Amino acid sequence: MSEQPSAAYSVRAVLQRLESLRRAGVTHLPKSPAGADPALAVSAPESSRLPHEPMPRKTAQKTSSPAAAFRVEALAELERRVAACTRCGELAASRTQTVFGAGNPSARLVFVGEAPGADEDRQGEPFVGRAGMLLTDIIEKGMKLRRSDVYICNILRCRPPGNRTPLPVEAANCREHLDAQLAIIQPEFICCLGAVAAQNLLGVSTPIGQLRGRFLDYQGIKVLCTYHPAYVLRNPAAKRHVWDDIQMLMAEMGLKVPKKSK
Ligand code: SF4
Q: How would residue 65 be classed by pLDDT, with cut points 50, 70 and 90?
């Protein structure tokens, strides 16, 4: 049985609430029980973007402003809804738990991968296996950010059995959750990790080799696609291309890019 989106599941309501809180100068949001406030129940794409509060170049998790506090609360509410999602019957039946996403709710940069694997399914966190360790190295050793500065999620929030590629219907089912996360976080940049993430987010079938190495647009957000860390582990020669892509991203974000060694 598939779960139908609720009428209250509106990103617009979230964004309107965010704006009204900001105008009212609210500095603290009370905790509310799941489902208590329909305006915190979110999803569906939203192209209109509220002005982002200025964030430091290297963002620490920032929850003191009304916007940041609202994002924390809205993501927590969305996570509770996702945990109960059964739209993909096979995945809902076989998962240990949903893997919602993790990181800074006010991140400038969101990494989007494919789907949870066995480690992620067990721990409930995205990118915690071998590929996750490589992604952490890219963020911390390469970009000189903390993993907690960025936000990390996937196209799917449940593990496909045997780590098979997500079915188009599963990606479509979970798209509402992804778009809701992006609408709450409102990142300036998205880095798609691998073909499944890139093709699903952008709605194209172009090979990842042709999508990478340039900036694309998703609802006003700059998107950079690169190879999935798991692919890099299997094909070490791809590491050079990923580093080229990441340096391009760093330059666009205004981060210091190391000089090329000869
Ligand atoms: S993959 Fe997404 S849409 Fe499908 S059951 Fe899991 S949370 Fe729901």
A: confident
Would residue 174 count as lying in a domain?
Answer: yes
> How far is it, in rounded angstroms, from Cα 77 to Cα 18?
14
Instruction: Give the number of the atom of ligand 1 that is nearest the alpha carbon of residue 95.
Output: 6
Say how many Å lie between the CA of residue 156 and the centre of ligand 1: 6
Instruction: Specify if 158 maps to a domain.
Output: yes
Q: What are 134's two structure tokens?
A: 């490589």
Report yes or no on 233 lying in a domain. yes
Count of domains forming the chain: 1
Q: Span 104-122, mean pLDDT?
A: 98
Check residue 129 and report its DSSP letter: S
Domain assignment of residue 6, yes or no = no
Beta bridge partners of 192: 112, 225
pLDDT in tens, 167-195: 999 999 999 999 999 999 999 999 999 99
**pLDDT tens track for 37-48:** 333 333 333 333
Nearest CA to ligand 1 atom 4: 88
